[in-house]
Amino acid sequence: MVIRSRAPVRISFGGGGTDLSPYCDKYGGLVLNTTINKYVYVTLIPNIDSKKIEIVSIDYRKTSEFNDINSMEADKDLELIQAVIRAMSPSCGFKLILRSDIPPNTGLGSSSSVAIALIGAFNQLQSNKLHRYQIAELAYKIETEYLNNISGRQDQYASAYGGLNYIEFNKDDFVRVNPVKLENGILHELEKRIVLGFIEQRGTSGDIQKLLFSQTTLTDKNIEILNKTKDFCKQMYRALLERRIRDFGLLLNESWGVKKALSDKISNPKIDRIYKTGIEAGALGGKLNGAGAGGCITFICDSDKEYAVEQALIEEGVKLIPFSFENLGLVTWTFNKEDI
């Protein structure tokens, strides 16, 4: 038997940062995001006659072999994969192959998509299957408790559930995923008006963790900024429901200005220049995805201004990423080796 899974990455529109503890535990968090048709793929080939483990990472061009789970040696490139394996604790050996449509450190939540796709694949070996909520929560706990990383929950839930969602976070690990039901016309128009581009690799994971830590400290300034960020998220949600895409883009612009005030490391002169270029070419608003400091930038364009924005970004050295919305989230399937 061969098990395959895929999990999408996401574009974040509003509320990023309010899903982080301790803010969301005390004040409640909100995010608005959508998954896109860029995936992390996992292939799992169980071997019931052995305990041997083989991990093949296409992205890192690395193959590692271990006698069993207990003999897995620490590897920075494979630490998330190894943490999921230990958490799922499969009873047999296996070969594991991973690849992604998106490189690491883009800010699109790909590390959470890796965790979701892995858990989804190993879940097929269990008699008591985890449902999407449990898979998302386990992925979050692996990243925060097993690996001691600072992380919100939006990436894991977005990847597990898929689609355009308005997600609530409160104390006691409460999460509510609210699918945003839009008419096809407004959904297609939103998709058409988005330009997604890759600026540059963000810093190391340690640099990103420092950046996130600075955003989780509940100073009076940070609380005020996160409250405003959450309020903008509410307004953006309402604008979509009322078919006001232009207002949605302008709110995105205002929200980005507020977000940058959390830390002087979120943006830099290069990012500011690229952002200004996008606005001058016809974008209504935009933002970096993820914690900031690089990665992918999303613009919402004025009507029929996408091409002008794209050309202006290309001249700035930005790599455009074509995409479509997707609404399936985590998908798993199986087949026989003979059918490959």
Please characterize this protein's 3D structure.
Helix 2 (79-88) runs parallel beside helix 3 and helix 2 packs across helix 4. The protein has helices spanning 23-27, 79-88, 110-123, 132-146, 154-161, 184-193, 205-216, 220-241, 245-259, 269-281, 306-315, and strands spanning 2-14, 29-47, 53-57, 62-66, 93-100, 164-170, 174-179, 194-200, 283-288, 295-301, 319-320, 331-335. The protein is of the alpha+beta class. The protein is 39% helix and 26% strand. The model has no long low-confidence stretch (mean pLDDT 93). Strands 1, 2, 3, 4, 5, 6, 7 and 12 form an 8-stranded mixed beta sheet that branches. A 4-stranded antiparallel beta sheet has the order 9-10-8-11. The chain has 2 domains: 2-180 and 326-339, 2-Layer Sandwich (Ribosomal Protein S5, domain 2); 184-320, Alpha-Beta Plaits. The chain has 11 helices and 12 strands.
- The radius of gyration over CA amounts to 20 Å
State the helix count. Answer: 11
Q: Uncertain runs with pLDDT below 50, 5 residues or more?
A: none
> What is the overall shape?
globular
Mean of pLDDT: 93
User: Helicity level, as a percent range?
Assistant: 25-40%
| Major sheet size, sense and barrel closure | 8 strands, mixed
